[in-house]
Amino acid sequence: MQLAVELEELGTRIIEASKFLEHAEEELSQRIIGQRDVIRRVFIAMLVNGHILLEGVPGLAKTLIVSTFAAAMNLKFQRIQFTPDMLPADLVGTMIYNPKEMEFYPRKGPVFANVILADEINRSPAKVQSALLEAMQERQVTIGSQTFPLQEPFMVLATQNPIEHEGTYLLPEAQVDRFMMKVIVDYPSYDEELEIMLRSATNASKVPVKAVVHSGDIFQARTLIDRIYVDPRVQRYIVDLVVATRVPAQYGMPELETMIEYGASPRASIFLLLASKAHAFLQHRPYITPEDVKAIVYDTLRHRIRPGYEAEAENIKPSDIIRQILQHVQVP
Predict the structure, then answer these.
(1) Partners of 287 in the β-ladder
(2) What helix, strand, coil percent values describe the chain, rounded to 5?
(3) How far apart are CA 197 and CA 202, in angstroms?
(4) For residue 163, with 0-12 CB atoms within 10 Å meaning exposed, 13-18 middle and 19 or more buried, which class applies?
(5) pLDDT (tens digit, 0 to 9) for every residue of the chain, 332 residues total?
(6) What are the strands, taking DSSP E only, across the chain?
(7) CB neighbour list of residue 16: distance below 8 Å, 6 or more residues apart
(8) 153: cis peptide before it, omega within 30°?
(9) What is the CATH number of domain 2-203?
(10) Contact 128, 90 (CB under 8 A)
(11) What residues form DSSP beta bridges with 142?
(12) Interacting residues of 54 by C-beta distance below 8 A, sequence separation 6+
């Protein structure tokens, strides 16, 4: 009885506190046509302090989505174009010598912003990727002997091109695992592309974006998301989905044993829970359901499952493996 009263009170607060996201989504629609699922995933990552890897062919408005999101959320935006000749100092900054004072002082790099667009992240060498890794994981940057905290909220949205591999560097698994979600940016529908074309021809796509959100709204939302109720059966369902990627035979899928080289790490369980909570928040609910988990599971697990040789030979992708796991793991 007490839990029901608390959830009702929390639900009322969530409805009120989530209104800023509706305003932001409406503002984004002034410039972005379609891509509603991608935008929702960006909101989810921001609400639970996560990072996103965006994958899609060129020309699908990935940069426009991120820059417009930052403008509507009233956050400092910085786009960083990753190139093979890039150095860590180009990202985090460096120490500059002042001859008058006869001492060094830090010059902070572009990573000191709220929303970072790491464009074509797989074009940068390992040293640059490791510098970004510290910023993503530790929320801090080291320049020389000094360590500087990054301003909250802070999130990285990295893009990579899935069809061009010449001159690219494979992202280390440790860094890939630190992205909460890998979101696939797909082509727009026929009607959406028609509207995109017409808007571009009339310069309607350059409509200014108003800042409709304050950072306090984001922090308040995070506090409420922490309180969202998760039933123990749903907790076990999340862990079952992740563990099934490592030992599928225990869940009645022995045929997947040779299809998966390695499965998702425990970080996947953490991120799947957090993302499910944020998804429930977007639905104005004070508790999560298995449907919340299912809605976000592909984005959370697809980059954490490496298919084996047999899977690649049969053109079985991580999404196919996740679909099969969803069919076999019992839903509470």
Answers:
(1) 229
(2) 50, 15, 35
(3) 9
(4) exposed
(5) 677 788 888 888 888 888 888 888 888 888 888 888 888 999 999 999 999 999 888 778 888 888 888 888 888 899 998 888 888 888 888 878 777 777 777 888 888 889 999 888 888 777 887 788 878 888 888 887 788 888 888 999 988 876 655 556 677 777 788 899 999 888 888 998 888 888 877 765 567 778 888 888 888 889 999 999 999 999 999 999 999 999 888 888 888 888 888 888 899 999 999 999 999 999 999 999 999 999 999 999 998 988 888 878 888 888 999 999 999 888 88
(6) 52-55, 77-81, 93-98, 103-108, 115-119, 140-143, 146-149, 155-160, 181-184, 260-262, 306-307
(7) none
(8) yes
(9) 3.40.50.300
(10) yes
(11) 147
(12) 38, 62, 66, 157, 158, 159, 160, 183, 185
**Beta-strand pair 103-108/93-98:** antiparallel
Compute the residue count for the chain. 332
Domain extents for the chain?
2-203, 229-328
The phi, psi pair for 168, rounded to 5°, reads -115, 160
Pairwise CA distance, residues 22 & 3, whole Å: 28
- The candidate with the shortest Cα–Cα distance to 132, out of 94, 77, 89, is 89
Are 268 and 301 in contact by the 8 Å Cβ rule? The answer is: yes
Q: Residue 283: enclosing H or E segment and its boundaries?
A: none
255, burial (CB in 10 Å: exposed 0-12, middle 13-18, buried 19+): exposed
pTM of the full predicted structure? 0.88
Is residue 243 within 8 Å of 288, Cβ to Cβ? no
From the list 186, 220, 244, 183, the residue with the least C-alpha distance to 50 is 183
Residue 239 DSSP one-character state: H
Helices (H), 73-108: 88-92
| Candidates 3.65.10.10, 1.20.1530.20, 1.10.101.10, 1.10.8.80; CATH matching 229-328 | 1.10.8.80
156 three-class SS: strand
